[in-house]
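Memo subject: From amino acid sequence to discrete backbone structure tokens
Keywords: amino acid chain, backbone geometry, structure tokens, three-dimensional fold.
Body of memo: The sequence and its backbone structure tokens, given next.
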Amino acid sequence: MKNFKYIILLLFITTIFAQTKNIYSFYDFDPVVITGSRIPTEFSNSSRNISVIDEQTIRQQNAESIESLLMNLTDLEFKTRGPLGIQSDVSIRGASNEQTLILLDGMKISDPQTAHHSLNIPINLDDIAQIEILKGNASKLYGPNALGGVINIITKNSEKTNGNLRLSAGDNGYAKGDLSLALLKNNISNRFSFSQKRSDGYIKNTDFDVRNIFYKAGLQTYNTKYDLSFGYQRKDFGANRFYTPSKTEREQMEQFLANLSSFHSTEWGHLAMKFSGRKNYDHFIIPQYNYENKHTTHLYSAEVNGFYNTSDFVINFGTDIGYNDISGRVMNDERYHVGLFSESTFKLLKKIELTPGASAYYYEDWGLQFFPGLDIGYNATGQFRIFSSIGRSFRVPSFTDLSYVGVANMGNDDLKPETAVSYELGAKHVSERLQTTATLFHRNTTDMIEYVKDISDENAKYTAQNISKIKINGFELSTKHFINKFTINTLAISYSKINYDYDFDKYEFKYKYALNSLAQKYSIIVNQKLPFKIIANWNINYQERVHDDGNGQLLTNLNISFPLMKVNVNFNIMNLFDEQYKNFMEVPMPGRWIKAGIEYKI
């Protein structure tokens, strides 16, 4: 942490010599959230640990991608292979990336081939209205693959006619262009966005070229809202040592996404229907080994849920039907599921709120699975709430887990689903100036899927296996202070600590992911308003993995923006102090990377 003293000095200087009157308003932070419960719930009244990133915060960060945004603002774990949103695995509370469910507007989009593709989402940051992060077990709400938690990305509907153009360039041959247009006429809204970015790469074979296109239409009638959206993404990038020791790996991906939803309001509640489809094409080559792999996956899902509200209780119930398949050179498979879910909330003694729920899912290969859960909340005061939850969850093996055959990894068609029982106990304080949440959690996972190889055999491949048990205990603390003084608008600090109890032999076998998990992470986020309307955002992160032995990584990112004539100018410095570090695969990551850009509102 040798650069920490320089960070403090820079913050001190900008605070002392720029004490101007601050007109930054407090954020009225009590949005309706849907991720922590299928029953609409205000943030302050939720009985789960939920983080909400609003549109204003997203705009201030000027992040490169969804991954970059979440890395800057949360204590989530990212196993990053490629920078600037090229390839990252996200996980929550020590879970694997396969145990973290990704939603887009409430619909499941996690990739059935492999969670390495789950963050390949064909939208731009300008399209996002809000991101909700539910930490901990969520299978009673969303069924499979939600052991660690859920990330729900909610897209915008046009509220007025406008447009936005962004152009940026930077080190390593980086260039990017973004265009977004919104049209609102009567009760019909349309939104379109396009972005393309490219780079020569920071070392050999880390170049990339990425294109995103997204369109969303909305229709509002007297009591029903309809949304229709389409997305397209194309990625072509050098994958230097992403999955094997080879520096020659390359990957091309193409993705198509479509969502259709309706929300019908009534006097007693609402009825919602959602339909989605996702197609992903993946072409992976390793010239050094003369290896080539092509696969196409399809994911289709339909969901219907109803919400009934009375003076004594509210109840949500619904069904979820899904089908996915894969076809290609190595993997050819298909599966479907049928699920039912229900959840109810009622109060006891005015201050105690109970939210029991359960889901039941049927898979042809694994039969019927049942997953109950219970959330409890106690409103000690109007601003202080104690909460607790318990639940059972599971995740099904991916197609890669079951049948992949590669240069370094092998699937296993005898795998069983993972199951887990999770507990948490926490407290939150929510007021106009201060929001604080602290949580203790425990998860006991059985039949966890891990890639394992014999240490004594240098030529052995990592093979997917069900290892017996992993117990995880952890603590999370996050606080956000709306200071609005001494140039500092907001100060957010978070800390997470995770301990792992592995029931397997670490001496005879080598494990690809389990021993590379996050052990602890500190984050400091400062938003400053300086003279001449300059806005500065500092993101300071320190993290250690299990194998780091106390030698972690301290990374600082800085974004500065200010208006100039009719445009807004921004400078982004990633890895400000040029920290030399490697990712979990021991591949060198980028040093200092400077980008500059302009934004013009149409």
Notes: Residues 15-29 have pLDDT under 50 and may be disordered.
